[in-house]
What does this fold into?
Amino acid sequence: MILQSLWNRVGDEWIVGKAARLLFGAAAALILVITAIFYYLPLPGNPAISARVLFGIIGVSGGLSVFFLWSGMWRYWIRYDRSGRFARRVWFVILLVGVCYGAVVYYLCVYLPNTGARTEERVA
It folds into this structure.
């Protein structure tokens, strides 16, 4: 409900623009970096308060990135994705089950190529 009202205020044209591409790319990169940090780097048993604050900031920004990217990719899938019927069904399952990682894959495989071509068409 909250995300729906937020996207309604932003509008549909923004989602295919250059600023959206950059923000979604930053969110996707942040999700991947945070995953690597939290899963592959050993954390100390009793970190200092500064480390706790830093990890808290990273965690909150990662959580916000997940919801931003996931809801944005759903919005793009609903409004702009003109793939075939089978491809749309596959992407539906990937976005639904994959949540943030599905959204990252969708961003890289569908959103980025389509919005990049769309921007180049407008310039030409």
